[in-house]
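Lecture 7 notes: from sequence to structure.

We start with a single chain of 250 residues. Read the sequence below before looking at the structure.
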Amino acid sequence: MSSTDPQRITLIGLGTIGMSMAALHLTWDSIIVDTESRGSRVSSQVSCGRLNIHPSLESACASATIVQEQGPENLAFKQSIWKQVESFAPRTAHLWTSTSGIAASVQQTNMQDKTRLLVVRPFNPPHIMPLLKIVPAPETAPERVEFAREYFSLPGSRHRPVVIRKEIPGFVGNRLAFALLREACYLVQEDVVDAKDLDTILMASLGPRWAGNGVFESYQQGGGEGGIRAFLGKLESTMQEVWEKEIWRF
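Now the structure, written as tokens:
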């Protein structure tokens, strides 16, 4: 089945990420959900036939073309659920996990076919935030990766899927966020700035700048005709001082 064909998607877990992923998929697909849910947001979609509530994982997965898991960040849970999904879902179904940091290669330990599972990690809330990180395990089949990339690149999609070349703790987005959080905590702890003013600095400078250009492109432009090499040359001594202190601090 092509990524452009109508999909039948099983969502495992309807917490914050799960509900937002449902909203994302509902822009063009029907949804199958494996657990009973309550609330007007779910009921309105059930009443129009676009979302079906199933009493068991087996019935939810039986005709799925995509199974996406948003369960607890618990390795034992994920290993157990994928073993069950593999036995219930069609062999052609694509298996995605929205984990924040548990690699697909670790989650698939109990699976027979290790070519099917990959991480599809959104930024919360995924129906609004454009980024979707696609992180395959070493055993993941390339065509499974390409299917996910094409699916989130369909015409009308506002999303920007990025394939991460190899597994690493925290993937990429979280690693960048954690590095910034670590420095932010240090600056507040050392009474360089208070938390409110630090947030103001980010929102009034780096936030809008990086939203438009990103890190490397911003510094490339900042260097003028000389590009990023010229930019780094101008700030070399300051950057070196900060980085050397970083090494000793951590």
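Residues 11 and 53 are 10 Å apart (CA to CA). Keep this in mind for problem set 3.
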